Amino acid sequence: MLWLIQLIILIIVVITALAAITVRDLLGAAILFGAYSFMMCLLWAIMGAVDVAFTEASVGAGISTVLFVSAVFRTSRRTKD
Amino acid sequence: MKAAGAIVVLLFGSLLIYCTLDFPSWGDPTSPASTHVSPYYIENTLKDTSVPNIVTAVLADYRGYDTMFETIVIFSAGIACLFLLRRFKHVEPDTRLYRHVPTGITFRIEKGGRYPRESDLFERIDLQWVPHDLIIKTTCRMIIPFIQIFALYVIAHGHHSPGGGFQGGVILGASVILFAVSHNLRSSTNRISERNTVLLCTLGVFLYVATGGLSLLLGSNFLDYSALSQIFGVDPVTARSHGILLVEIGVGMAVMAVMISLYYNLASAGKQDEGL
Amino acid sequence: MHDLTLIIISKLNYWIYISLMMIGLYAMIVKNNLVKKIIGMNILQTAVILFFISIGAKNKATIPIIEHAHGPGDHAVSAVNYINPLPHVLMLTAIVVAVATLGVALALIIKLHQQYNTLEEDEILAQLKDN
Fold first, then answer.
1. Would you call C121 an interface residue with chain A, using a CB distance cutoff of 8 Å?
2. DSSP output for B109-177
3. What is the residue-wise DSSP string for A52-69?
4. Residue C75 pLDDT more than 70?
5. Do B166 and A55 touch (CB under 8 A)?
6. What pTM did the predictor assign?
7. C78-92 confidence digits (pLDDT tens)
8. Does residue B230 form part of some domain?
9. Maximum C-alpha span of chain A
10. Could you tell me which chains touch chain C, where touching means 3 or more CB pairs under 8 A?
11. CB spacing of B174 vs A74 below 8 angstroms
12. What is the distance in angstroms between the Cα of A1 and the nearest Cα belonging to chain C?
C-alpha cells in the first residue's frame, strides 16, 4: 500500500521536474520548482526521514522559491528556450 | 551541443544503472549500510547524551565539527552575496510616489518639487506601484508573531521531535521575509537593518565556536560538551544535552540572519530601497 | 524472462532516482538560459539526496527518534527497530550547502544581467567575442 503512494508521488516528481526545465516563462519555472521541492519533501517524509523533510519543506518550498521569484523580478521574465 | 549533452547523459545513466544491479534490495535490515556503524549510534545516544532525537544528537554532538563548518559555509554565502551585489552609493530617483492615507489618493512628485514632511498622513510607496491591500497587510501582521513563536519552539524542542537549530532559523527568516513582502522593503529595513543582520550572523557563528572553545578552556577536547558540567553543575550526560541546545541556538541565529540578508540583497539588486 | 521482470521490479525505484539525476544533468549542460541551468543544478542536488535517503530505509522500522525516552522503566533500544539515521545527518548538511550555493548563484545572475542585459548564454558569448 505504501509503495502505491510512493509510486504516484514519484511520477508527479518526474513530471514537475521535466516541466520546470521546459516551460518558457521563468516565473512559471520558479513556481514549478517550488512544487517539485514540496513533492520531494512528501517523499522523504513517507520514507521516514522526518528531519530532512522538515528542512526541505522550509528551505525548498519557502526560501528557494522566494529567492528565485525575486531574481526573476530583477532580470527578464521571458526566455527563448 | 544537444547531441553531446544527450550522449554524456545516456553514458552516465547507463553506467549508474549497471552499478545498481549489485545493490541490496530496498529496505533490507541486513544491508551493509545498516550494520557497520549505525547500530552504535542508535543504541548509545540515549545513554551518552540523554537526547532522544538521534539525528540532532549526531549532528550537534558526535559530528559537531562538521556542523560548525557548515555554519561557516552559510555565513560566507551571505557575505559573498553582500560583496557581489551591494551598492553603497545612494542615487536619488527622479520621481517619488506618495499616498495620502485618509483618502487613498496616490500622487507623484517630480524632481525639483517639494516633498511632504514626515508625518502620518503621507506614506511613501515604491516606484513599482501596487495597490494598497488592507486584507493582506492585516492578516500578515496578525500571523507573523505566531510564526516566530513556532520557530522558537522548533529550535528549543529539537531534542525530542524533528527540528533543531537550522529549521527554526529558516522559519524565523521566512517570517521577516513575509513582513517585507506584505508591506514594503523599506519598512522591514527600518526594523531589522542590514547592520543588525550582519551582527546577528557573526554572533551566531561566534556562539558556536565559543562553546567549543569554552570546553577547551575547561580542560577537555574542543567541542566536548561534557566539560561544561563544571559550569552548569550537573552530571556530564545532561551537560551534553545543554551544550547541544547552546550550539543549536547559535546555528539558528546565523541562519536567520543570512536568509534575511540574502533576501534584502536579491530583491533590491543591492540598493536596498525597493523590493518585491 | 521471469527473473528479468523480477530484477526490474526490485530495482525500479533506483532507476527512477537515476533518471531524475540525469534530467538535472541534461538541463545543466544543454539549456541556454542561465536560470534554467540553476534549476537543473538544484534538481540534480535533490535527486542525489533522495538516493541517499532511500539507502537508509528499513522495512518495519520507525523514525529515528527513540520512543518513551524519559518515561518510567528501563528502555532496551534495539537497532533493528529504527531506521538508519546517518544518511539523514549527511543530507541535512547537503541541503544547507544547496541553499547557500543557490543564493550566490542568483546574485551572480543579477550581476551578469546588469552588465550584459541578457540571460541567454549564446548572446553573452557573442557580446564577449565582439569586445
1. no
2. E-TTSPPPPSSSSEEEE-SS-----HHHHHHHHHHHHHHHHHHHHHHHTTTTSS--HHHHHHHHHHHHH
3. HHHHHHHIIIIIIHHHHH
4. no
5. yes
6. 0.91
7. 777 888 899 999 999
8. yes
9. 46
10. A, B
11. no
12. 13
The answer to whether position B16 is within a domain reads no
Range of the domain at B150: 39-87+130-267
Is the Cβ pair C26, B6 closer than 8 Å?
Answer: yes
In a domain, C71, yes or no: no
Which residue range(s) make up the domain with C122? 2-60+82-130
C-alpha cell at A44: 522523504
- CB-closest option in C49, C62, C109 to A75: C109
A63 touches chain B (CB under 8 A): yes
**How long, in residues, is chain A?**
81
Looking at the structure of chain A, the number of domains it has is: 1
Residue A67 domain flag? yes
pLDDT digits 0-9 by tens, C34-58? 999 999 999 999 999 999 998 888 8
B188 lies in some domain: yes
CB within 8 Å: C77 and B53: no
Q: Kindly determine whether residue B70 and residue C75, on different chains, have CB atoms separated by under 8 Å.
A: no
Touching chains, A (3+ CB pairs < 8 A)? B, C
Q: State the total domains in chain C.
A: 1
* Digit-coded pLDDT (tens) for B46-74: 888 888 899 999 999 899 999 999 999 99
**Location of C-alpha cell 553514458:** B11
